[in-house]
Request: fold
Amino acid sequence: EKDVALEIALEVGELVKMFHEDVEIIYTRSKKAQFVELRERARIANKNNADLFISIHCNAHPRNSIFGTETY
Reply:
């Protein structure tokens, strides 16, 4: 999950840079082996006065017939 989520986050970051050059992107992690606790992620966002915090996760289920998305 963490490797897939990181790849998606990096791709989303590249798209944002491509279409919104004035937006500063701050990643909470950039390495596959690196883990950052949720509280630390929030602290990073708050310290940088972030206007938007995007957290990307991938869920799994053993039954292939179950699929969908979540947005909070």
